[in-house]
Amino acid sequence: MAALVTYFQLFSVLHIVFFLTVPARSLVMTSLPAVKGAYSSDPTTFPPSVVDTSLFTHIYYAFLMPSNVTYKLEVSSSTALELSNFTTGLRHKNPPPATLFSIGGGGSDSSLFSRMASKPTSRKAFITSAIEVARKFSFDGMDLDWEFPNNAKDMKNLGRLFKDWRQAIVVEAKATSRAPLLLTAAVYFSVDFFLDTVYRKFPVRSINQNMDWVNVMCYDYHGGWNTSFTGAPAALYDSKSNVSTSYGLRSWIKAGVDRTKLVMGLPLYGRTWELKDPNFHEIGSAAVAVGPGDKGVLTFAEVEEFNKKNGAVVIHDMDSVSTYSYAGSTWVGYDDDITATLKIGFAQALGVRGYFFWALGSDSNWKISRQASRAWSLGE
Ligand SMILES: *[C@@H]1O[C@H](CO)[C@@H](O)[C@H](O)[C@H]1NC(C)=O
Ligand SMILES: *[C@@H]1O[C@H](CO)[C@@H](O)[C@H](O)[C@H]1NC(C)=O
Ligand SMILES: *[C@@H]1O[C@H](CO)[C@@H](O)[C@H](O)[C@H]1NC(C)=O
Ligand SMILES: *[C@@H]1O[C@H](CO)[C@@H](O)[C@H](O)[C@H]1NC(C)=O
């Protein structure tokens, strides 16, 4: 039996979310249009032709990497074909979303970015190449996903990189009389790495001055790297820790980043565990291993399939604002359209610019993407 949240309950929770948010959305209305973004991690198996572009304003090609010798972006002939397919395909959709490419990614070499950002000459080589690739393949912008700057020095250099990058964008736009390219970055859920032994904080001033916005990765709070306990991978609230989306987004605001420069991440995937005892299936229950999926990761479409096939119990946990399901000893933490909608309400009350998904192809018949887009537009 699925635990169903009635619309009355949903409505009440939405109100609570609105009233509890600190300080309510400022009265100064911004004219900036909302960002409804998505990273496309698999443009070949999930090509532009199948994307419902009415649901997204910005679509990111993920990922490109720089050479670790020259720091210029490496674009093989097959990648070149993929890039032009991506931008051409999306440009001909109705409506056409803006396109960006993202550089780096979760598994990429962090030390390469550290070396590149540390010197004016290597920053310049990287930036010049990125702008060249953007124009050559008709992208509207560029995104950096350096996971992660490892120390205070890296963070300082990241601020310099953003500054140089913005300057180069302005110069190029003037010289070519074209609209300036967009510049965004994917960043940690919190403005500082308060959990790590090496404390470091993102360069707030440089972000405000040089970035169009940052995509705050409000997910991966718990996962298969800790098989002892289940956890809500992208909880909005956590009464026992600061590892939550509400804490993370507020930390960025508290540090002085303009709200309009913040875009909230939403996962279109779940994380799985095998419970120690199937009778204990709350969030935080003892577990012994990861569950189904590659390293315990299932796309939202796969979670729905799993739930259906196994008659899983689905719970909408209103303390954390997250969804989980269990069947036998398997436990899955994720967001569905209901909890994603509640987070949208939170983000709008906070006054941030929009939301983005990782990743485009993981939704189930656009269920979450459509509900999120609708909810954001209703709340505007
Ligand atoms: C660059 O990458 C190659 C291949 O991964 C590696 O062998 C080489 O040591 C790297 N160079 C530097 C400067 O890190
Ligand atoms: C590019 O698009 C064409 C036709 O739309 C397709 O046949 C081809 O496989 C695509 N190539 C890549 C690399 O995506
Ligand atoms: C796993 O998570 C639990 C609960 O959050 C924590 O007490 C424990 O230290 C974690 N273990 C590892 C190896 O991170
Ligand atoms: C959360 O962070 C605040 C400061 O931002 C700190 O005062 C509080 O102790 C933290 N809570 C936990 C559970 O770590």
TrEMBL record:
Gene3D superfamilies: 3.10.50.10, Glycosidases (3.20.20.80)
Domain GH18: 34-379
Keyword Hydrolase recorded: yes
Domain of life: Eukaryota
CDD domains cross-referenced by the UniProt entry: GH18_plant_chitinase_class_V
InterPro entries: Chitinase_II/V-like_cat, Chitinase_insertion_sf, GH, Glyco_hydro18_cat, Glyco_hydro_18_chit_AS, Glycosyl_Hydrlase_18
SUPFAM superfamilies: (Trans)glycosidases, Chitinase insertion domain
UniProt entry keywords in alphabetical sequence: Glycosidase, Hydrolase
Family classification: Belongs to the glycosyl hydrolase 18 family.
PANTHER family registered for this protein in UniProt: CHITINASE, NOD FACTOR HYDROLASE PROTEIN 1
Protein name: GH18 domain-containing protein
Organism annotation: Hibiscus sabdariffa (roselle)
